[in-house]
Amino acid sequence: MKESLGSRLFDAGNVTLLSIVGLLALFPLYYVFVVSFTDPSEYILKQGLVLFPHHWTLSAYKYLLSTRTFINATGVSVFLATVGTVLSLIVTSALAYGLSRKRLLGRRVIMLLILITILFNPGIIPHYMLIRNLGLIDSIWALILPALASGWNVILMKSFFDNIPVELEESAAIDGCYDIGIFVRIVLPLSLPSLAAFGLFYAVAYWNTFFNAVLFINDNTKWPLQLVLNNMLINSSTSAGGSAAAEMMAEQTIPTETLKMAAVVIAITPIVLVYPFLQKHFAKGVMLGSVKG
């Protein structure tokens, strides 16, 4: 069909408007990236908007990566994002698979308990008292165990497992495969799109861990990257605490703003690099887990 003039004008206007909105959304990221590579003397001289620096430098990144506080925080965030994501996927997939099998005793009761955790939040004080009574204050596991499984993710993954034909499991059982073997050798390989999607959810959540760290972690050597970055943005310095401040360089020749932007770039780079590899599984995994056909 030949498009009318009005339809073509609408499409052109729509593309133009969306392009402008996209550029406006990308400009803050571009500015953060550019300032992080700007030469300190040039930034101090301009004291304003830097759209394209004349001299590019890695001095801000070298400074940050030479401080023990920033290195420790990066290591903590990497540990949370890797170990936490793996454990969360194991717990979530195992629980969802068990709930998807109708022969599980107490299946409805467990589902009801999971729904209660989604609808009702106990609050900050009971949460803190639970972690304290478990002896997890100032422990990295205080940032992993409370977020080990999301009730919403469990329900979505359960819906995905419901779509797997029971005949596959029955055939494996006839061949002498037990429940764990069926789960590991048959169910999980068929669930890779769903695991990739939920793995991305968990990895982003662990990498961006902030509020739980504020509540449960007092030792600044165990602070994740987001908490150190927050202190940098608030205090306008690279100091992450009294003892950490002594480890910083005595004379700071790099502008604080440049250090902030470099820290932001380092914080967002891992997720930006991982997302393209999981993007092809993202939409497929979420749809398979949310629609029962």
UniProtKB/TrEMBL annotation:
Name of the featured protein: Carbohydrate ABC transporter permease
Organism (species): Paenibacillus baimaensis
Transmembrane region(s): 12-33, 70-97, 109-128, 140-161, 182-207, 258-278
PROSITE patterns per record: ABC_TM1 (PS50928)
SUPFAM superfamilies from the UniProt entry: MetI-like
Keyword terms, alphabetized: Cell membrane, Membrane, Transmembrane, Transmembrane helix, Transport
Main subcellular location: membrane
Protein's membrane topology: Multi-pass membrane protein
Positions of the ABC transmembrane type-1 domain: 74-277
Pfam family, one: BPD_transp_1
Source organism, top-level taxon: Bacteria
Family: Belongs to the binding-protein-dependent transport system permease family.
Subcellular location field: Cell membrane
InterPro entries: MetI-like, MetI-like_sf
Alphabetical list of CDD domains matching this protein: TM_PBP2
Keyword ATP-binding: no
